[in-house]
Structures are given as C-alpha cells and as structure tokens.
Amino acid sequence: MANRISVILPCYNEKENIQALVPFIHDVLKDYEHEILVVDDNSPDGTYNSIKEKNYDYVVPVLRTTDRGFAKSIRCGIEKASGDIIVVMDSDFNHMPKYIPILIDNLKYYDCVIASRFLYLPLEKHESISRIVSSWFFNLFIRIILFSKVTENLFGFYAIKKTVIQQLNFDDIFWGFGDYFIRLMFYLQKKNYTILQIPAIFGERNIGVGNKALLLRIIRYTKETFILRLKNL
Ligand SMILES: Nc1nc2c(ncn2[C@@H]2O[C@H](COP(=O)(O)OP(=O)(O)O)[C@@H](O)[C@H]2O)c(=O)[nH]1
Ligand SMILES: [Mg+2]
C-alpha cells in the first residue's frame, strides 16, 4: 500500500509565505498521496483565512485560538494528521521543499530522516557565516551534554513514521520553540530509533523578518538542554 504523507506547517503571520509555499509543496509531492496541515495560531495578519478561502482539497487548515506556541502547533498537526508519514517544516521557505522527497524516500530504510546543515561544506550560497558557525558550536555543546550523535539539533526539518513518533511521550517533548526538536532527537536516540541525516542548506525566508531574538533563544535552549540531561541521568 502506498504511503500517505502529512506535511505540517506551523505558522504565525505568514500570509504571503504560506500562499506561495502550499502550492509549491503540492507540486513537489505530485507523485505522492499527501495532505498539508497549515497550523496557524490565530495570526493577526489573517494567515488562516487566506489559506482557508483557497479551498484546496489537499489542505487541512487548522486554527488554534488558545495556548499559542510553535511546538504545540506541531503537536496539534501531528495529532490531526491522517498520513502514515509526517513531515515537519517551517512555513517561510527557510526549509526548502526540494528536500522533502529525499526525506520521505529514505524513510523506507530509517525511522526518521532529518535535514542537517553540517554534513558537507556549503557549495551553494549559505546562510550568514556567523549564524552557521554559532549553530555549529551550539550543536557541539548539545551533543556533548546529551551524548548525541546527531549533527543537527536545531534546524527542525524532518520526516518521521507516524508509528514511531507515537511511541514517544508528547508531554515530554512538545512545548517551547526550537528546543522541542532537541528533545525529540534526544528521545528518539534514547529509544534506539534509526535516524538518517541528509545534507541541506538553509533557505532564504521569502517575506517578513522571522524571529530575531537569537540571544534569548540561545539562553532558553541552553537551559532546556541541561534540564533534559538532569531529567535523564
Ligand atoms: N503556529 C505557530 N507557528 C509559529 C509560531 N512562531 C513561529 N512560528 C512559525 O515557525 C516557523 C519558524 O519561525 P521563524 O520566526 O521563521 O524562526 P527562525 O527561522 O528560526 O528565525 C515559521 O514558519 C513561523 O511562522 C507560533 O507561535 N505558532
Ligand atoms: Mg524562519
């Protein structure tokens, strides 16, 4: 039986980006049975309505009105997904749709496939040197504290079998922002699931500025990494 793919797109104030991204992903996945879950946290710019009114038969628009949060939106998307393969990505083109088939196809052999920015020297134009170097050091820190073998604990672009992610305790993982992905990688490794990493580069955000509070994020992720270690001594 063919697999059904559920792509989860958490979004907040991404009206323009989501309208470009959704048909783009649909095209990339034309050879796969798929649905796209757009999980919006009641964005003031009307992201939800802008996608709902398109009435695409392959889109499931989800509106969250309480308990706003990036990781909680992803959890909500996973719980509503009808597919047996889950793909999680950002909705601003930072995660390039062209990688989705590579992620999915390798799930034939692995439980989870993640995109990593640290597997080869960037031959294509890459994100800023300062951002990639600081992400490299931060990943090194995470790997040392958590004894992790994964080179990329921050990007958060991956495909996973639904039966695998369902084996994890969602309450242990899905809160906060990108720190949820550190926890996801940790618990998958703890349970000895197989993870393949594929080389990828960071895509340019199409429109808007995104989350710029980098220092706050680093502080938060550092704290969450230590908490995770202490919880699992
Ligand atoms: N549902 C939901 N999505 C969010 C929230 N905050 C950010 N996002 C989405 O998460 C993705 C990553 O956010 P972004 O600000 O681009 O982070 P950055 O790429 O790390 O700078 C984007 O697609 C955002 O629209 C939130 O509170 N709720
Ligand atoms: Mg972004």
Major sheet characteristics: 7 strands, mixed
Strand order of the largest sheet: 3-2-1-4-6-5-7
- End-to-end C-alpha gap: 41 Å
> Using DSSP, what is the number of strands?
7
Separate helix tally: 9
**What's the shape?**
globular
Per the CATH scheme, the topology name is: Spore Coat Polysaccharide Biosynthesis Protein SpsA, Chain A
Share of helical residues? 25-40%
Structural domain tally: 1
Could you name the CATH class?
Alpha Beta
Structural class: alpha/beta
Residue-averaged pLDDT = 94
Strand-residue proportion: 15-25%
**Rg (C-alpha, Å):** 17 Å
Instruction: Pick out the low-confidence regions.
Output: none
CATH superfamily: Spore Coat Polysaccharide Biosynthesis Protein SpsA, Chain A
SSE pattern: EHEHEHEHEHEHHHEH
> What is the CATH architecture term?
Alpha-Beta Complex
- Unique ligands: guanosine-5'-diphosphate, magnesium ion
Could you give a quick summary of the protein structure above?
By secondary structure, the chain is of the alpha/beta class. It contains nine helices and seven strands.
